[in-house]
What does this fold into?
Amino acid sequence: MVDDDPSLLTMIRILLITSGFGVETARNGADALEKTRATGFDLVLLDLEMPVMDGREFFRMFRAENQSTPVLILSAHGAFEAREELRAEGAMAKPFDPFALVREVEAWLNPDVERATV
Amino acid sequence: MSHGQWRLRTRLALALLAVFIPIFILVALGHLENLNERRQTKVEALASIDKTVAASMEGFAVDLETFSQSAAITLGQASDRGTALNQDNFGGFFTTLAQTYNVRTIFITDLDGRVLAGSTGNVGFDISSRPYFLALKGGADTVWSGALAGQLSGQTTLAYGRDVRAGDGTVIAYLFVAFYPPQIANRLPEDLPADTNVTLIDNNGVMLLSTANPDADTPTVDVSGYDVYRRAAAGESVLLKDEPTPFDSDERYGAFEPVLETGWVIGLTRPASAIEGPLEARFLRDVTILGIALLAGLGAMVFLASKLSKPLSALASSAEAIGRGESPTGLGQSADPDVRRLELAMTRMADTIAEREETLREQKLAAERLANHLARLHAARNALSTLIPPERICEVVVGEAVKALDASNGAVLLQDETRPDRLTQVAQVGYGREIADQVKGADITPLTPSGDAFLNAKAVFFENAAEQIAQYPADAWRKRATGTDAAAFLPLVAEDKTLGVLVMAFDHPRQFENGDKQLMSAFAGQAAQALHRSQLYYAEQASRQELEAVNATLARSNQAKDEFLGIIAHELRTPLTTIFGATRLLNDSRKNLQPADQAELMKSMEVEASRLNQLVENLLLLARAEMGREPTLLPMMISRLIDRIVANLRSSYPTRQVIVENRLSGDIIESDETSIGQTLYNLMTNAAKYSPDDTPIELGAWETADGIRFCVSDRGQGVSPEELPLIFESFYRSDGAVRKAQGKGIGLAVCRRLVEGLNGHIEARLREGGGLEVSFTLPVTLITKDEPAREL
It folds into this structure.
C-alpha cells in the first residue's frame, strides 16, 4: 500500500491485516519501488498524489520491471482516468467503503471470488 | 422674290419631273419595243421577198442553161447533118433566141475562140483570151462567168458558156449567152418598195448590180471580203439589221440569199430610216405632247407658288420665331382672309406658347432647386446612415446644408459633455480661423440666439444683421465679428432632448420662405437623429465593453472557482477516506480488532478530523480574505504562537524533527494571530509532507528593515525553478505541474492571502543543498523584548 497520508496507511494496514492479508506500506513512489524490488508482492495499492515520486512515475518504473503484479489505483481525484491512462489493472475512488476494498483485494488475490466493480 | 418662293417653285418643278420622267421612260420603252418588233417584221418580209428573188434568179439561170443546152444539141445535130456552123445558117436562129429569152447576145465560136455566128453578128471576133472561154477550152462542160466588162459594149456583162458536141461527142464549137445584169433586175417583183437596193454579187464577189447605186454598176467593186456575202455565198440566208454595207453609206436592213445554180448572191436592203422613220415621228409626237403637258404643269405651279409662297414664307418665319421662343413679326399684312385667320391663330398660339414657356421655366427652376435640396438632404442622410462619430456627423450636415441653401457660413454647436452649461462648436463652414476661434463656444443663455434656440427648442430666423442685433444686443459683438447678415438658428432635437444648434448664416439679407425653413429644419432633424443614434451607439458600446470585461472576469473567476472546488474536494476526500474507513472498521469489526489497532484507528480519526478542521479553517480565512474583511489586530506573543504550531504539527508528525530559530529581540506584536498561525501551520505541514521523514523542518523568525520575517524550510525535493513563482497561485494548473501543485492543495494560496491581508509579503526560493524555503515578512514592530532563539 503506497500513500503519503500516514493515517490512511494505518487504517488500511489494520483493515487488510484484520481481513487476513499481509501488508507492507510505503510513503511515496521511491520508497515503494525500493520495497517492491526487495520483496515480491501479489498486489499493489497505489495513491497518485505523493511527494518525492508520485504514483504515475512509480507505476511506469514498476511496470518496466514487473509485468505480472496487478496495480490498483486509489485516488480522491481522477483514479479511473489514471487507470485508463496507465493501463493499470484496477481503480477505486477515495473515499471508499473499506469492505469493498477488502472484496476487491480478495478478488485479485483469490480468483475464485468474483470481483466487484467499483 | 423671296428665297422661300424659289424654294417652293423648285420643289414643285421637281415634283412634276418626278411624275413626268417615269412616263417619259415608259413611252420611250414602248417605242423601243415597237421599233424592234417592226424591224423584225420588215426584215422577215424582205428576207421572204429575197428568197423569191433568189428563186427567180435560179429559174432564170436554169432557163438559160436549158435553152443553151437545147441550142447546143440543135447545133450539134445540124453540124452532124453537114450544115456549117456560120452566120448565114444560124444568125437568124440566134437573133430569135436572144429576143425570146431577152439576153444581150447569143453566139458560137470555133475551138480557137473566133465567133462563127451570133445574134449580133461580129463574126471572127476573138474571145480566146476570155477566162470563161479558157475554162471551156480547159475541159469544162459549162461555165458561168463572173462580171465582165463587155468587150464590145464596155458594159458589165454576164455570160454562160457551154460546149457544142457532135453526135460522136466531139466538141465542135462553144456556145455563149451574154446578158446585162439589169436584165435580171427586170425580173424582180414589181411591188418592191422604191427605196430597196437590189444588189447582185457574182460568184467571184464582184458586185454586178446595186440598184441604189446605178453609177457603181461596174464590175470593179469587189466585195469578196464582205462577211455577209461570204456567208450567203456559202449557202446561208443572211439577215441584215441596222448595219451599213460596203455599197451603202447608211444603215440598212434586209436579206442576202444565195443563187445556188450560179454561185451568185442577191441582196435586198432598205434604209433603216424606212422602218424607224414613222415610228420616230410617232415617238416625237408623244414626247412633244408630254413636254407641253410638263411645261403647262410647271406654269401652273409657278403661278400657284407665287400666289402662296409669300404668306407661307411669312407664316414659316413666324413659326420659326415661335420655335425660337420669340414673338412672330410681319404677320397681318395678308389680304387673303383664310391666310389672315391662320395668321391670327398663329399669333395667339405664339402668345400662349410664350406664357407656357415662362411658367415652365419657373417650374423648372423650382424643380431644380427642389432637386438640389433633395439631393443634399439625401447625401446627408446617406453619409449619416452609417454610424460615425458626432464630429463627422456635424461636418456632413453643416456642409450639405450650406450648399443646399447657398449660405455663406454654417456651424453646429453641441452641448458640452463636460460643461453642460455651454455650447461648443463642433463643425463649421465659412468662418475664418480667427473668428471661428472667437465664437467657438458660448454659455447657454437666452441672451444669445443660439442659447435661445437651444433652451426653447425653437428655430430662430433673422432676415438681416440689424434685426438680430436688435433682438440680442448682448450678443451683438459676436454677430459683428462674424460679419454675416441674415441668419438662422435651428435646435437639434431628438427624442425630446435638445442636443445642440445648427447655425446657418448668409452674407446678404434674405427672406426665408417656408421651403427654406423646412429644408433647414430637415437638416437639423437629420443631424439630431444621427447624433442621437451615435450617442446611443457609443454609450451602448462603452457599456458593452464594460460588460464584456466583467463577463470575462466572471468567466475567469468561475473557472477558477470550479478548479478550486475540485482541489477542495480532493483535500476533503483524503481525510474523509481515513475517517470513513476507520469508522466502519470500528463499527463492524471491533471484535476482530486488537485493542492497539483500535487505539491507532481512533488516533488516525482524530488526526484526520483535525486536518479537516484545518482545511475548513483555511477555507474560512480564505473566504474572509476574498470578502476583503479587515483582519483583527490584537497584541500577541510570537513565542506562544510558535509553540502552539509546533505542538499541532507534532500531533500529525510525532517523530518529525523541528528546529525553531527565534532571533527576535522582543516577543509581542500587534497583529492577527489567527492569520499568522494558519500561515505558519500551512507552511510547516507542507514542509513535513513534502520532505523525507528523516530530514528536519526549520522554522525561523527575525527582524528586518521591513518588519518581522518568518521562514519555514525543508530538505525535500522542492519544486522546479519554473514552478517556483506559481506555487502561491491557489488555482494554478498547468499540464506539467498540475498534479504536484494540486498535491500542495490550497495551503500556499491561503498563506499568500493571509500575509497580503496583513500588508506583508511572501516568497519562496530553492535552498542550496536541496529543499524549499518559504518566508514572509510582516510590517510590524516588536513591542517588548524577550529571550533569544532556542531550539526545541
Summary: The longest strand of chain B covers residues 248-259. The two ends of chain B are 150 Å apart (CA to CA). Chain B touches chain A at residues 566, 569-570, 573-578, 580-582, 584-585, 588-589, 592-593, 597, 600-601, 603-605, 607-608, 611, 652-653, 689-693, 716-717, 739-740, 742-743 (CB under 8 Å). The first helix of chain B runs from residue 3 to 80.
